[in-house]
Amino acid sequence: xxxxxxxxxxxxxxxxxxxxxxxxxxxxxxxxxxxxxxxxxxxxxxxxxxxxxxxxxxxxxxxxxxxxxxxxxxxxxxxxxxxxxxxxxxxxxxxxxxxxxxxxxxxxxxxxxxxxxxxxxxxxxxxxxxxxxxxxxxxxxxxxxxxxxxxxxxxxxxxxxxxxxxxxxxxxxxxxxxxxxxxxxxxxxxxxxxxxxxxxxxxxxxxxxxxxxxxxxxxxxxxxxxxxxxxxxxxxxxxxxxxxxxxxxxxxxxxxxxxxxxxxxxxxxxxxxxxxxxxxxxxxxxxxxxxxxxxxxxxxxxxxxxxxxxxxxxxxxxxxxxxxxxxxxxxxxxxxxxxxxxxxxxxxxxxxxxxxxxxxxxxxxxxxxxxxxxxxxxxxxxxxxxxxxxxxxxxxxxxxxxxxxxxxxxxxxxxxxxxxxxxxxxxxxxxxxxxxxxxxxxxxxxxxxxxxxxxxxxxxxxxxxxxxxxxxxxxxxxxxxxxxxxxxxxxxxxxxx
Length: 497
Ligand code: BES
Ligand code: MN
Ligand code: ZN
Hints:
Oligomer: single chain
Number of helices: 15
Helix content: 25-40%
Largest sheet: 9 strands, mixed
Bound molecules: ligand BES, manganese (II) ion, zinc ion
Strand content: 15-25%
C-alpha cells in the first residue's frame, strides 16, 4: 500500500474516491462541506431526504457527483461531533475502505484526517489510516475451497491535511501503521488457521521464515529432547498426551545492543483441557489458544520490518493440550525448570505451565523487562469482556507504561492487582504450589502463579483471553496486542514524534 498526503481540496482531486464524513444534526465534516459546496448542496439535500445517515456504522457511496473530480464520494456517518474520537476515526475509515473493496477503486483520498479529534495527532491518524486499510483488506482464505477471492484494487490511500507541516508526521505514522498492520495480519492469520494446520511445528516454521527474510534476526528451535535436558518438565507435562511434537521457539532481533526486551507468547495450538476435559460447546475456539504466540510473533515481525533500534527476544513455548494414554493426570507433580515443584490439579490450567518454564529460560538473556502474553483465563473475559486486555506484573512502572501505550495505540489494557491474599490459594500439600487456586479472581491467581517465576526481573503479564479474537458471526483473530506492544517498543526506542 502507498500513502500520500495533500493539502488540496477534496473536490479538486482526481482519484477513484474521496471519503468524507457527516455528523449528527446536519453538521458536515470539512471534506463533506467542500463536496457539498462544489456540488451545489448535494450532501445537504441527501441528508434532508434521508438518503444519507450520520449514524456511526453507516456508509453510502455516491457516483459522478457534479463539480467533484473524484469518480466516487464515500459518505460515512460520524455520529455526535462532541464524542468523535480516534477509535471512531479508525472505524469510519475502515468502513469506507471496506465498502470500496467491491469497486475498482485504486486511489482513495481520506478527508477524515481533517476532523478535530481530541487526544491525537497527525502521526497517529496516519497510523490508524494504514491500520484501517489493512483491516478493510484482510480476508481469510487459506482454508477456503473453490475460487480464491480476487484481491481488492486498493493500492494508494491519501490523507488530507490542514497544514503542510503535518505531512512528515502523517507519513511516518502511516509507515509505522503499515508495519503494525503486517504484524497484525500475521497474528490474525496464524490465529485463524485451524489446529490441524497450525501445529507447534507450523509456528516454528513461520518463525524460521521470518529469520530468513529479515536482517539481524536469528531463530533457534528447541525440540523435546533438549527441553528434557533443560529441565522443562512443567512444559513437557502439557504435551504428554499428544503426538504433535512440542517446539520451543527462540527468536532474536538485534536492532540494538544493551539488555533486551523479552516477549513470551503462550502457544497452545489447541486446548482441549487435557484430562480435565473442556465441555464441547465452543471448543473450536480453543484453536485461538496460541494467540499469545502469534501476538508476540506479529510484534517481532513489525519490529524487524520497521528496523526498530531495539534488542528483542521472543520466546514461544508451542504445544498441543490433549488427553491420551500418556497425558498428565490431576494430582501429578512435576518439577519446573526453576526447580520449583507443581501439583497439577487441573490439566486445563496449562498455559501457566508452559509459560513458567519459558520465563525461567528467559533469565539467560538478563532481560531488562520480560512480558508474557497469553489467552490465559476465561475469568479475564468475565472481568473485562472483549475490550481491555488484563495487565498484571511485579513492576507498577512497567504495567502503567503498557497501559498508556495501549491507550495511544487504541489497543487498551486495564490493570489488575496481584498479592499475597490471592497467591495463598495456590498452596499445595504435595508440591511447592498447585497450578490452580480458588475460582474467584482466576485471572489474578494465574498472574500470581507466574509471578513466582519472575524472580527479580521486571515482568508484566497480558491476559488477552477476551481481546485476541471475536466470537459469533465475525469469528476471527483480532491481531491484538500487536499495536500495544509495538507502541511500547516504539516509545522505548525513542521513535515516537
Ligand atoms: N485457554 C484457556 C483460557 C480461556 C478460556 C481463554 C476461554 C479464552 C476463553 C485456559 O487454558 C484455561 O482453560 N483456563 C482455565 C483455568 C482454570 C482451570 C483455573 C479457565 O479459565 O477455565
Ligand atoms: Mn486450558
Ligand atoms: Zn489454554
